[in-house]
């Protein structure tokens, strides 16, 4: 980073007359004489002037030439170079962009999971994620080609011979929706494979053959909505339990998939509550697993290992991230602890699960100080936690998205038995009941995870009823909104306008509804969704065109660990709508390009000002405007120069990130 940026002292915007220079020099010498000869601070030495092409991302998409920032990181002026330089003292520091570079607001990822993302850096060979397509390939120590199929991937887990027999084996990011299933691996015979059926039918059998039968094994799916275990792990969890699975599994909307045998399980676990008992049991034998109960201690113990993950986000141009599902006060405090470290290079806002907010009596918070109210305030990196998170359904690629006509899972392939998927609640009214108490306070931003079209309709209907109870003026966020349908988006648009008729027959007051799409669904899973959901549903993934038609503001996110947090990749993927076939990783055309392709301008807004508005951060970040804070990214090329009739948009991911700034200070100076 920091390539070709020049720092210098400010110079006047035009040539000065000799008489003016002489007069100024005499005045300066007289000043020195009055202070006993000591040198006074040059005028405006506490200010920084950024010069070059500035994409402000304001409502008018203004392109400026200069930005002036004070020592607290407050933006004082934005405009032409001449106008901003006018009256500026010679002591100001100048950051001059090189030819071709642009200054933008720092990128924002509005939905990821920070702690699991950093955990990937620690697991190394136990990170089982499949390859990314060529344009987005991230070098790893392990050849990702060896992870093309499920069983070879499981067999790649390296077990320490010195480890105790009761110590859990933890793997993460297995993805059977993209990693093909070849049953004749790990010494499995054709007869055994025929009896065991597919991996999703009987993961327990395949884990025992490919990883271990003697040690408890827990494998987390990349979606975060599924997990897989062997019998030893089930025995550990069920030991001493009056009933198994524990009641908490069903209460949280989870499931242990039953086998044909009574009181036996296949090893497939659904939803977080389904695998939470295994995470709890694992903490007794594997310190790393204490990420759930003692996350701050884990972060402190693995500082060296997690640092590359943090730097990778900075190197992608991120200056603000939203952690979209913190479970209770321990995780909330851990992320706050991380953000407040001196050299942490990003701001963080937290979103807390609705049930843990009740259990731990968590109230919404903001940053410790506000530059709008206090001129001395340097905006903190920890922005507080003002959002609530609730899951309506599961994962589209995990076969647990809640679908309805005209969509359903195919009866062949990866999700053959999934039907219409599943929801985490019995019905829409149960969502209303779950959120009512917190909604009535009118103090929370509420964010609902909904992938399937039916899950999104439930969310619309729930918000319509809640808004009749109490009019909440905070933004509500539909996270993912993956499987698109034109009527669904119309309903969502009507909810925004205050014209939607709720299920009780009443018209709901307007809800400030926004959408954020996991645009990587198109690139990484689009081809697979053709087979799982059908061509129409695949073409309507992340339906930007429907959003546009209905005036629904949208952003793009990574949902990391699900996809890498790389905002320029989001831009390219939204503009090109390209998809790849697994395991060959051959490009497999485009999905819904004519209807749902974003313009580059729309996509840039979806990683800057729109996510800032969704999290009510737009008073400080998201655009470069007077009164906001100087969180910037410098790019080596202008993304607006790319598009169907301009530079090749499939090369947007190659635009270099030169530097990021927080409060006007370069983050590359942090060790």
UniProtKB/TrEMBL annotation:
InterPro entries: Amidohydro_3, Metal-dep_hydrolase_composite, Metal_Hydrolase. Residues 211-666 form the Amidohydrolase domain. The keyword Ion transport does not apply. The keyword Membrane does not apply. Keywords: Hydrolase. One of its GO terms (molecular function) is hydrolase activity, acting on carbon-nitrogen (but not peptide) bonds. It comes from the Bacteria. This is Amidohydrolase domain-containing protein. It comes from Myxococcus stipitatus (strain DSM 14675 / JCM 12634 / Mx s8). The lineage of its organism: Bacteria, Pseudomonadati, Myxococcota, Myxococcia, Myxococcales.
């Amino acid at each position: 980073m920091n390539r070709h940026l020049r720092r210098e002292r400010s110079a006047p915007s035009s040539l000065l007359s000799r008489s003016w220079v002489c007069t100024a020099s005499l005045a300066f010498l007289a000043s020195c004489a009055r202070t006993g000869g000591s040198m006074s601070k040059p005028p405006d030495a506490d200010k920084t002037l950024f010069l070059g092409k500035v994409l402000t991302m304001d409502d008018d998409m203004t392109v400026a030439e200069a930005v002036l920032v004070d020592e607290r990181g407050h933006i004082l002026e934005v405009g032409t170079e001449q106008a901003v330089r006018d009256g500026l003292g010679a002591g100001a520091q100048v950051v001059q962009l090189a030819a071709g570079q642009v200054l933008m607001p720092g990128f924002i990822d509005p939905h990821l999971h920070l702690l699991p993302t950093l955990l990937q850096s620690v697991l190394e060979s136990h990170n089982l994620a499949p390859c990314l397509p060529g344009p987005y390939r991230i070098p790893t120590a392990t050849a990702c080609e060896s992870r093309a199929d499920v069983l070879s991937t499981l067999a790649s887990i390296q077990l320490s011979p010195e480890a105790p027999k009761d110590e859990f084996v933890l793997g993460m990011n297995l993805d059977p929706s993209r990693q093909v299933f070849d049953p004749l691996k790990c010494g499995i015979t054709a007869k055994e494979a025929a009896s065991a059926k597919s991996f999703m039918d009987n993961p327990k059998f395949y884990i025992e053959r490919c990883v271990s039968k003697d040690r408890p094994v827990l494998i987390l799916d990349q979606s975060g909505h599924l997990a897989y275990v062997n019998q030893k792990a089930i025995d550990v969890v069920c030991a001493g339990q009056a009933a198994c699975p524990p009641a908490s599994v069903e209460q949280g909307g989870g499931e242990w998939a039953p086998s044909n045998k009574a009181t036996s399980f296949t090893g497939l676990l659904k939803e977080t509550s389904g695998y939470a008992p295994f995470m709890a049991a694992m903490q007794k034998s594997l310190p790393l697993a204490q990420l759930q109960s003692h996350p701050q201690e884990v972060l402190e113990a693995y500082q060296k290992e997690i640092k590359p993950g943090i730097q990778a986000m900075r190197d992608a141009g991120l200056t603000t991230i939203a952690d979209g599902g913190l479970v209770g006060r321990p995780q909330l405090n851990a992320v706050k602890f991380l953000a407040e470290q001196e050299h942490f290079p990003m701001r963080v806002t937290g979103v807390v699960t609705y049930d843990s907010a009740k259990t731990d009596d968590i109230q919404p918070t903001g940053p410790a100080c506000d530059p709008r109210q206090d001129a001395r305030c340097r905006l903190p990196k920890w922005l507080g936690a003002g959002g609530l998170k609730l899951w309506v359904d599961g994962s589209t690629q995990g076969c647990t998205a809640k679908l309805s006509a005209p969509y359903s899972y195919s009866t062949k392939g990866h999700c053959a038995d999934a039907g219409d998927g599943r929801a985490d609640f019995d019905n829409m009214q149960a969502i209303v009941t779950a959120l009512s108490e917190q909604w009535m306070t009118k103090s929370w931003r509420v964010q609902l995870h909904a992938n399937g079209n039916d899950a999104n309709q439930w969310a619309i209907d729930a918000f319509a009823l809640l808004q009749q109870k109490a009019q909440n003026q905070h933004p509500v966020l539909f996270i993912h909104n993956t499987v698109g349908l034109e009527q669904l988006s119309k309903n969502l648009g009507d909810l925004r306008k205050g014209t939607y008729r709720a299920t009780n027959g009443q018209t709901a007051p307007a809800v400030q509804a926004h959408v954020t799409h996991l645009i990587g669904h198109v690139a990484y899973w689009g081809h697979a969704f053709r087979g799982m959901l059908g061509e129409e549903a695949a073409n309507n993934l992340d339906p930007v065109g429907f959003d546009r038609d209905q005036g629904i503001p949208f952003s793009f996110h990574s949902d990391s660990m699900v996809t890498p947090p790389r905002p320029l990749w989001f831009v390219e993927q939204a503009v090109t709508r390209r998809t790849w076939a697994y395991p060959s990783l051959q490009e497999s055309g485009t999905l819904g390009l004519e209807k749902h392709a974003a313009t580059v301008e729309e996509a840039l807004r979806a990683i800057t000002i729109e996510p800032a508005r969704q999290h009510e951060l737009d008073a400080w970040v998201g655009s470069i405007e007077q009164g906001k804070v100087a969180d910037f990214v410098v790019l080596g090329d202008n993304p607006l120069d790319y598009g169907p009739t301009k530079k090749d948009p499939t090369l947007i991911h190659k635009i270099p990130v030169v530097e990021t700034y927080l409060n006007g200070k370069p983050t590359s100076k942090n060790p």
